[in-house]
Give the backbone structure.
Amino acid sequence: MLKIISTGKGGVGKTTTISTLATMMAKEGKKVLVFDTDPSMNLAMTLGIPYQEVPTITENKEKINEELDEMDEENAVEVGRNILENYTKVNRDGIRIVIMGSIPEEGNGCLCSAISIVKILMNYVDSDKCPEVYDVAFVDSQAGPEILGRGLAKDFDCNMIMTEPTPKSAEVSKQVASLAKNLGITMNLLVINKSEVEDDVDRLSKLVNIPVSDAVRIRYDHSVIDADRTNTCLLEGFPDCDAINDIYTIKKRIEAIQS
């Protein structure tokens, strides 16, 4: 199973890029799983499911933690199966969505146990114990580098480091790239989003300290704004726009990891 995480500063386009890549692959017949670990929970809606309809990990964390307290090697599979069956939703393209959820109440701000649950579920679906065989799993991370510090992306195939073509955004991406080096991630792919000039690739590669050969750009495209404003799937509403063509390029780079 190909495992990809999207990281970077808030607002850089992680959710739009992940949802578009997932939809592209699902429409090709691939079995796709996506994890939304961002408390803002926009991924489900972007994939066509109102987040109110998706059972979240944080709102059910107490019940799930009871199972975790009793978990050992023998029943770990059952815990993973229960989470997959009861705390996920499948959209019309067949993409299975796992939502971490927002902080449900004051004083319950730590998402560490929820991250641990995501790790358990990822291990389950990547094992021969899971009845469904997934081709690819995407993780849409919360903003900033912290999620890598928790080790969620250890041994992933690709860390898609999203950045805007600005020094502030690049600084967060630089922190992300530094943390990722210790996690055994196969590829750190720098994605410069909302790019209006070609030399953004060379400039941002130097700022983030990523080889220019591992950097790509998504051109600034008003179609992305139009799709968001009208709650339209970018791939379906604007299939020939610049952003879609650039995301196809990213898709080819990611899929080439396995070849």
User: Anything to note?
Assistant: The first strand starts at residue 2 and ends at 8.
